[in-house]
Amino acid sequence: MNNFTKVLRGYDPAEVDAAVAEFEQAELSQDPLRKAAALQSLRQKKFTVRWSGYDRQQVDLGHVAQPPDPRAVAWSHWPLAIIVGKEIL
Q1: What is the 3-state secondary structure (H, E, C) of 29-62?
Q2: Per-domain residue ranges for the chain?
Q3: Pairing of strands 6-11, 49-54
Q4: Which of 89, 66, 79 lies closest to 27 in space, CA to CA?
Q5: Which of 3, 34, 54, 67 has the greatest number of beta carbons closer than 10 A?
């Protein structure tokens, strides 16, 4: 479950949740190829816009309404990796 704000005309929550889960699993992996594949997948991901969904700007920039558990290792690089379809800053 993510802490993205739900808004009208936002990204499909199921798609975003799946992408987050894939990224988190890859980040926990020791396999650098899996990490690279997950990052590439996020760069190319185009989420479906729904009537009600996650705030598009928050998802695109990797921001969350409330910070996730600081013990969650996978979130340490989340803001850098979720910039979907844009250059990694």
Answers
A1: CCCHHHHHHHHHHHHHCCCCEEEEEECHHHHHHC
A2: 6-81
A3: antiparallel
A4: 79
A5: 54
30-80: pLDDT as tens digits: 888 888 888 888 778 899 999 999 999 988 887 554 445 544 444 444 444
Structure tokens at 24: 């988190």
State the Cα–Cα distance between residues 34 and 86, nearest whole angstrom: 20
- Residue (of 7, 4, 26) closest to 81 by Cα position: 26
Residue 44: count of CB within 10 angstroms of its CB: 9
What the block records as the tokens of 19 is 């992408």
